[in-house]
């Protein structure tokens, strides 16, 4: 992953680090590596989402471990210098700067450490479609609903999960959401 870190310009790497800090502070649900990767690729750098996600996981682990151990900026940089001599110089500079500015703000409470690792819902999109025909059936006229959920997994990576439902399945799905809303009103 260190060789891929060399590819990422300093400003994009700084943005990645900032987003990771915000995620660790529970200010944003996760790091949208797909969107950031697309912007990096648009600037002419060849990197894929998988590699960027690995880098984000490494930096997230680094920051959360440093927070858990209450490391100062100097201790973090010294640890990086001893353990990971392959890190690009610009990456170490960005990590130092971001940790110096915002590292102390990361709160690692016992509740957060013991919390179950589940994803966090970010957004939902849906669309209604009609399948008109296929190569095996000339006339379908079959309505369906496509739902796309945007979810941040426990490491902070934001992914899209899509599925299709028939109209009766969607009506049941909607009914369950209404039931959840009714229960939430009583809380």
Q: Can you walk through the features of this model?
A:
By secondary structure, the protein is of the alpha+beta class. It has 2 domains: 116 residues, no CATH class; 60 residues, Nuclear Transport Factor 2, Chain: A (Roll), CATH 3.10.450. About 4% of the residues have low confidence. It is built from 8 helices and 3 strands; from the N terminus they run H-H-H-H-H-H-H-E-E-E-H.
List the helices and strands and how they pair.
Elements lengths: L1 H6 L2 H15 L8 H10 L6 H20 L4 H11 L5 H14 L7 H5 L5 E12 L10 E11 L5 E9 H20 L1
Antiparallel strand pairs: 1-2, 2-3
Task: Offer a concise description of the structure.
It contains eight helices and three strands; from the N terminus they run αααααααβββα.
Highlighted features:
187 residues, alpha+beta, Nuclear Transport Factor 2, Chain: A, three-stranded antiparallel β-sheet, 3 strands, 17% strand, elongated, COMM
